[in-house]
Amino acid sequence: MLSGFASVGLYVAAAIVLAGFGGVLYIRHKVRAFNQKMFGVKKIPLDEAFAGFREGLDDTDMSPKSVSGVTSMMLPAIMRDFPEFNYEEMKEKAKNVLLSFLQAIDERHSSVLSEGTSDLRRTLTDRIEKNSVNRQHEHYKNVKIHRMEIARYDKRAGRCTIRFQAAVQSYHYITDEEDESKIKKGSKDRFEQSKYEVDMIYIQDRDVVENSNVDGVSLTCPQCGAPITMLGARKCVYCDTPLIAFNIKAWEFSRCEQVE
User: Fold this and answer.
1) What's the pTM value of the predicted model, to 2 decimals?
2) Of 80, 98, 159, 172, whose Cβ has the fewest other Cβ atoms within 10 Å?
């Protein structure tokens, strides 16, 4: 049996606990009532909460990837080497190559590719054949390029490369080849935001390139035989022989690759 003082202590403790709990409930009720009155805040149903979460995901799906654009820094150097270089025209060509590359994968036919070197066409063919071996169909629908910028400019003996970087949005998904309704990867209903790189190389003699296994070759001066170390050069640095008259200048696209 508990003593009188012990019993009283238990009652007091219980009263304090109940009072505290009641106070918390009372305060919580008042705060909720105040919020509802002032701001219209009410209890949010679970399905509405998940709807808001899904909207957050949709916002993320609509945010393009950032690109490493250094066009303003690289373009002056390119123009010094190639005064006739038309940036806007080349950028549009790079966009068309990228779009046709993805469309070719979707349609499973390499002939859709608008232009490109043998290496680029081989990469595309390998991709299509790999999907066929895996008995799957890779789709690119509603493709949109948000932004494309120059990300890199390399100069080497016999070869120059301009790398474009692009933020791409698309419905990218893979289905079973025999059952298109069976999605193996990706989603038909949610955009994929990705980043692609497109490489464009400078070729000084198309015939030499097409008859070789490389996309850039080191040429020599037709007069003295000295190596041509800068593709944009208009004359030989050793004997001043004009080079433009002896060589065909062309830019070719050699690479399309998703990097993120």
Assistant:
1) 0.66
2) 80
